[in-house]
Amino acid sequence: MIERRDVFQAIADPTRRMIILKLSHGPLNITKIGEDFGISKQAIAKHIKILNECGIISMSQKGREQVCEAQLGQLDEVTDWVTESRKLWNQRFEKLDKFLKETKQ
Amino acid sequence: MIERRDVFQAIADPTRRMIILKLSHGPLNITKIGEDFGISKQAIAKHIKILNECGIISMSQKGREQVCEAQLGQLDEVTDWVTESRKLWNQRFEKLDKFLKETKQ
DNA sequence: TATAAGAACAACCATTTGGTTGTCCAAATG
DNA sequence: CATTTGGACAACCAAATGGTTGTTCTTATA
User: Do B70 and A89 touch (CB under 8 A)?
Assistant: First the structure.
């Protein structure tokens, strides 16, 4: 099986984004995370697994509870990519500006 | 069918991210975009459609060619969400810092 | 100790996704 | 005019996705 898990795919799902948002206020166990979502705890656990696999959240056992904590440093990959794309995109306009200034004379 | 197209889902696919990167250097037609990807032009056209539907690229007819241009302002939604999540996440540490300073005395 | 609660594991299911091929049409080009 | 070329449309397919239920196991708790 090819490990296709990446951060971009992880944040693509709205439920997972909600989980991240919820966890950004502080660590919670799986049951707590699942509250207020209209889906089964098992479904939540699957989302948690995906988020964990790509490093967005970390897990720690505490008695019978599995405590999840956000590790949002992993989101750098996303902002880096957006920033890089936009940098190139903006350079395009700068080149056009330069061209327009040169031909104006 | 529910319109589930959003920017997060659009950038989840690596091929689509490559397309965006390619277009951030300047507009291209569908055939040009498809070059160097090992997949069919039809597959590329489908990706283009998705990117267009969520506003990341715009299309304009030019003779028989369909010219695609990046509209990376739409990526704000992504950076905004990441920024907001991280803001909350950092506040968590600030609260902890405050607590530690207060109890140290 | 009996029971409730947190979570893992597995099997299953419908829908979506990312890709394919084939046909067809309009616009360039020899 | 004949032929490429750019692209649209449709049908189809395998795999992935997001969800379900049922069982089991361990840890708390009344």
Answer: yes
Q: How many CB atoms lie within 10 A of CB B88?
A: 18
Domains with residue ranges and CATH for chain B: 7-104 (1.10.10.10)
Closest-approach residue (CA) in chain B for A91? B25
The ipTM is 0.89
B42 touches strand D (CB under 7 A): yes
Pairwise CA distance, residues B88 & A70, whole Å? 11
Written as six digits, the tokens of B45 are 């056209």
- The string of pLDDT tens digits covering residues B2-61 is 444 799 999 999 999 999 999 999 999 999 999 999 999 999 999 999 999 999 999 999
B85/A72 Cβ within 8 A: yes
CA distance B92 to chain A (A): 6
Torsion of CA B25, B40, B7, B89, to 10 degrees: -90
pLDDT in tens, A36-50: 999 999 999 999 999
Report the alpha-carbon distance of residue A54 to residue A50 in Å, rounded. Answer: 7
Alpha helices for A35-104 (secondary structure H): 41-53, 76-104
Contact between A20 and B85 using a beta-carbon 8 Å cutoff: yes
